[in-house]
Amino acid sequence: MTTIDVKHIAKLAELPLTQEEEKKFKKQLSAILEHIEKLSSVDISQVAETSQVTGLENVDREDSASASFSQEEATSQAKIKHNGLFEVPVILEEAVE
Amino acid sequence: MYGLTIAQARKKLDNKEISAVELTKASLQRLQSLDKKLNAFLTVTEETALESAKKADERIKNGDSTPLLGIPFSLKDMYLTKGIRTTAGSKVLEDYIPQYSSTVVEKLETAGAVLIGKNNQDAWAHGSSGENSDFGSTTNPWNTELVPGGSSSGPAVAVAAGIAPFSMGTDTGGSIRQPAALTNIVGLKPTYGRVSRYGTIAMASSFDTMGHFTKTVEDSAMVLSVTAGKDAKDATSSPKPIDAYTKDIDTSIKGLKIGMPKEYFIDGMDEKVKEATMSAIKKLEELGAEIVEISLPHTQYAIDIYYVLQTAEVSSNLARYDGIRYGNTREFFGDEAKRRIMLGTFVLAHGYYDAYYKRAMKIRTLIKQDFEKAFEKVDVIATPASPTTAWKIGEKVDDPLAMYLSDVFTVTGNVAGIPGLSVPAGFVKNLPVGMQLLGPMFGEKLLFQVGRQYELATKWYEKEPNL
Amino acid sequence: MVRKGAKFMNTFDKLSARYTPVIGLEVHVELNTKSKMFCECDNNWFGAKPNTHTCPVCLGLPGALPVPNKKAIEGCIKIGMALGCDIPLISKFDRKNYFYPDLAKGYQISQYDQPFSEHGSITLSSGKKIGITRAHMEEDTGKLMHETVNGQHVSLIDFNRSGSPLVEIVTEPDFESAEEVKEYLQKLRAIVRYLGVADGDMEKGGMRLEPNISLRAEDQKELPNYKVEVKNINSFNFVVDAIEYEIKRHTEALEKGETPKQETRGWDEDQHRTISQRSKEEAADYRYFPEPDIPPFVWTKEYLDGLRKELPELPDAKKGRFVEQYGLTNYNADLLTRTDAMSRYFEEVVKIGKEQLVDAKTIANTIINKKIDTETVLPAELVKSIVALSQVSGVSDEELQTVLKTVLTHNEKSVADYKAGKTNAIMFLVGQAMRELKGKAKADTVRTELEKLLS
Q1: Is C362 exposed, middle or buried (0-12, 13-18, 19+ CB in 10 A)?
Q2: Which chain C residue's Cα is nearest to B124?
Q3: Measured between CB atoms, which of A16, A25, A48 is closest to B342?
Q4: pLDDT digits (tens, 9 = 90+) for B379-403
Q5: Among candidates B119, B246, B263, which has minimal Cα distance to B179?
Q6: SS3 C198
Q7: Which of A51, A65, A88 minimises the CB distance to C292?
Q8: Is residue C6's pLDDT more than 50?
Q9: Active site (annotated) includes residue B151
């Protein structure tokens, strides 16, 4: 049986969980994973993967530019902004030494 | 004046019996009088509705009679509407006003259809009951203590309650066909790629389809004629020319082969639902179709691989909701979204990808091949649309697995990408039952023909809830 | 102090000889397409007002879908071809999932296991081959700026760059010195510029460099068990500095019996050193999976052959030809093929010069030694000035006077004719003088000087 490291997964998914939620999800996700276990019995040795069902190939577009949003439109839905830029609390990418 | 089909309303509009403005006002009135009970709408667009109704009347006056001109409709809140709040049923987008509209919305606007509002739904289209909405459950018009099905709960109810002649939903695992079955209306899940996904909030990108609810199959064909087609903004939309969906709809189904897959008539499903579906299939036989027993051997794995692949795509698609450019922060996600993000993140994580995601993609191939083989033998496949009729609000909320299993008959269509049509097929204890018709890729026209012949023979759609 | 420093340097030299640097490089090259990678926003956003080159797609709005830019894909494949890569017949895009405020969608559309090109190389002047693992297509992120607003430290985001097409070129850990890395970069930049698919403008972030460095002991066969990555450097010289700094840092650590920490570091221009950023132990788990919004790519041989035919003559080939065809030195041929524009200019001048008997070597020397500005000096003008230069500077006044006097002495008849009014006779004298001077002086000058002597 696979156990799920809820804390680690929540961190990867950038989901802030309460301790209670962690407990609840651990239980529920384990039940779902148990249900999924039966997939391991299917013989897939000769089977190709399906990542999409369109059957389409080589869909692209010509390299032409068209109008963009104005700065006002682009930032109209942001809760915090400054001088036409989106604002977030400072991102620490500087020294950790 | 409410509860009209599109075809009926079209006739009255063209005969100048009624105006689009009158029709729209009637819709809005019905909405206002019922929505306290039903909670099917999150936003009502009265002002813009009346404006577009006026414009439609102008066009009608000038002799325009395109099928959806002047017809009121509503949208699941997954469809982006420029300048009109779009929430996906989630508090994360509680006050999001989109800067653009989805392709489907633009097409419907061009066709002259009249948007009366945005519908309630399970948040992010996660759910099969409507209970996962952050804005309260939608109730079933046939019994308001019951769920209407989901995730397209609001749009289904808008049509079932006679508020709008049609509405747009999205179907990723059954979110149109299942609520249609639970509310006695017609629900179409088109072939993947038949209708553009651009501008509709993504749930699971390789499964999402843009479909609709109508009272009749005939109406369903009329709506698809407008929404279908290649969109340069959606690389997965098909360049295949669209069929004349309403043509041949009245042709007899004599000689058509209809497959009945044994994996869809199983122990554990509601016996009465099983019987109702069997008798619906019997009806198709009476109408001249040949019923062929078939097998889709990998059906039992569909739900499981769906919950691997779908949640993985969900975890990625919901990553953009970080509260920076729009909407609220990730703390605002509800339980079901968090659960799916967690599961999806897990199956993609280092060390698990091969065991879960990769394996599921391979089994997806097997399920697709099941259908390809089946459609070599039969023209259409008939199954129940839902293993049960509508259930009590609250009954399954603490058991996500049980909730997931309510998609068991519809999810295969999304896994394979094929079209599915849910048509009213009778009642069990006064609650609606739906029959699902599945067709080969781009086989919508055939589904409409079979569905239409069935509805003309049974007229289940004429039965309306007591509200 | 001096003694101590000298002693340290000696020790250091001795130590570093015991370790061989193992260096790999990732380069992000921004393509110069008109529109962005997956949307129609104008890709020429440099210097534009923030957030004015965005749309639903590159802003990561709900419901938006990517449609790939054909020109960008071709650019990536051409780079792959120019680097001698295999171009697989089947490719696809994948999602690389991670969270960062400048990443609009919470994932970057990139390529994981089926890139557009793989397994190529660049050969350095030493003859050493640097293996290229892959050259794949992806999209750029927005740009973060750190500022203080109302007394609060905040980060501000401009998404104009978000979704610009990038080609990521990854090498094998084949470099053993910073100089090799620098030469590789110069060659790579020349190639993408020749192809015309990228500007490679460092100032504008057109090429961003990420070396990874470790040291291997003399007797060690396998790769080191650690690797330090230095992120996002935007100048060739800084890469050299950062690598040298790291080599020194690692040497010191190893000598103390420590293994340098596996981590990501940044280059601090002001302090001239690298700084730890985040430990690799908690490296992101990118959860790659096939991008469901974009169908796969399946190329035919014919299509790829067609693209290959569009490739221009590349720097190495052109250099070889210059040596062969014009007899240039390797050194000169190298300098003249560093940019496509320079090489074209040279050949243009050669073509014009040929009519005036100016040889290619002289032209090469002139362009290089006189540092000719190829943008302002027209090829024809250059030829003219070479002719003029060589004639005037080829002979001293003294020598000229001697030659002219000799000519007058040996051609008394012509002198007499001239003095008798047959002015045409001077042309014969000029011709004679020019022959003696072997073209080292201008005919005009010779004539003027002769007239002076005859008057």
Answers
A1: middle
A2: C62
A3: A25
A4: 999 999 999 999 999 998 888 877 8
A5: B119
A6: strand
A7: A51
A8: no
A9: yes
CB atoms closer than 10 angstroms to residue C270: 5
Q: Smallest Cα–Cα separation from B300: which of C344, C63, C303, A38?
A: A38
Active-site residue identified among B19, B90, B101, B151:
B151
β-pair type (B114-119, B72-76): parallel
Which stretch of A75-84, B237-246, C65-74, C361-370 has the lowest confidence by average pLDDT? Answer: C361-370
Torsion sign, CA atoms C376, C378, C384, C389: positive
Taking a C-beta distance cutoff of 8 angstroms, is the pair B327, B92 a contact? yes
Interchain contact B292–A (C-beta under 8 A): no
Chain A residues 8-67 with a CB less than 8 Å from chain C: 12, 14, 51-52, 54, 56-66
Identify all chain C residues contacting A66, using CB atoms and an 8 Å cutoff: 35, 40-41
Residue B206's nearest CA partner among C140, C78, C295, C376 is C295
List, as ranges, residues 19-78 from A with C-beta within 8 Å of B.
Answer: 21, 25, 28-29, 31-32, 35-36, 38-40, 42, 44, 47-56, 59-61, 69, 73-78
Task: Residue B46: name the closest of B114, B129, B147 by CA.
Answer: B114
Task: Name the minimum distance, in Å, from the CA of B358 to any CA of chain C.
Answer: 9
Query: Does the distance separating the beta carbons of B304 and A36 come in below 8 Å?
Result: yes
CA distance B433 to B390: 9
Instruction: Choose among C214, C215, C193, C211: nearest CA to C202.
Output: C193
Cβ contact, residue pair C159, A65, below 8 Å: no
B19, B74, B76, B225: the catalytic one is B76
C-beta of residue C169 within 8 angstroms of C-beta of residue C188: yes
Contact C67 A61 (CB under 8 A): yes
Give the minimum alpha-carbon distance from C267 to chain B in angstroms, rounded to a whole number: 28
C440, HSE (Cβ side, Cα atoms, 13 Å): 12
Pair of tokens at residue B16: 């100048």
Q: What is the pTM of this model?
A: 0.91
Residue whose entry in the numeric block shows the structure tokens 């639970």: B182
Q: How far apart are CA B452 and CA A1, in angstroms?
A: 49
ipTM greater than 0.90: yes
Helix (H) or strand (E) holding C134: strand C129-139
Token pair listed for C100: 């960062």
Choice between B30 and C414, residue whose per-residue pLDDT is larger? B30
Distance, in Å, from the CA atom of A69 to the CA atom of B39, rounded to the nearest integer, reads 35
Low-confidence ranges of chain B (pLDDT < 70): none
Contact B207, B414 (CB under 8 A): yes
Report which DSSP code applies to C396: -
Q: Which two structure tokens, joined as six digits, stand for C163?
A: 């979704």
For B41, phi then psi, to 5°, come to -120, 140
With 50 as the cut, is the pLDDT of residue A96 above it? no
Say how many C-beta atoms besides its own lie within 10 A of residue B271's C-beta: 10
Token pair 């390299």 in the structure block, residue: A63
Residue with tokens 């653009």: B100
**What pLDDT score was predicted for residue C10?**
45
